[in-house]
Amino acid sequence: MPVSSALVSRTTLANAVANAAIVVTGGAVRLTGSGLGCPTWPRCTDASFVATPELAGHGVIEFGNRLLTFALTTVAIATVVVVFRSVRRDLRALALIGFLGIPAQALLGGITVLTGLNPWTVAAHFLLSMVLVAVATTLWLRSREPGVGQPLLRRPFVLLVTGIAAATSAVLVIGTVVTGSGPHSGDPAAGRTGFDPELVSQLHADVVFLLVGLTVALLVALYAIDSPARVRRAARDLLVVQLAQGVIGYVQYFTDLPVALVLLHMLGAVLITAFTARLVWSVRGPASELPLSNDTAALRTAPRSGAVPPLR
Question: 3-class SS at 230?
């Protein structure tokens, strides 16, 4: 018997939360200097799979974060099982991608440890996590509706949303370069990119300004037309998260990167990723989400009348 849609929604939500949580805990590992608390991989030491007393607190923190991967894997497996037992075939690809991303992430994390926290592998590790957060968010949002839906916006708006997603990706990528050039390396022996932190921070800020500008432009345009409320809400909420993240970024920069604010900034990166995924998801939906007009009224009655006029 197929599982209920409510169970699918709850399980995919747990999966999204778990993917977000492990990013934040991973940030705590780096910010406490525990990145090499377990100096090798897949064992914690050459002789032990678990942290030993000699590794002290750093070993406990790093090994604890590794254990969380098993919890995330359990949730991801449960998500795949529930989705495949439901009638929602359209969710299967996303569920599988989310699950397969976990061993890929674990392998990349192992390479990161074995390379002594090379800043470029650390960056790749974080960016893959962001991809999984976006996939998990989309999976959850899509599970709450009966299907993928139809386009709700004209092509110029869809292109602008795509531009916002691309700018968000650029912000995240450059943000990892900033991190790899700054003081929080995860271990005193870890290398740095060699870039000037002030220069890459300015580049990061410039791209953030572009991202915020694109989001404001989209929001103004959406309110200027009779656009679907779900898209307006998604754009509005994303802008709020972007502005909050910008404030945190500036405060942490001018206060010499205190650990608490850097960790909060990492949480902000997760939220921006999730809310950007929500915006991309929002541009497709059921016909009932379209603003009521002559065209959309005809569209909603199309299954009974047979004729579907084009949206102009």
Answer: helix
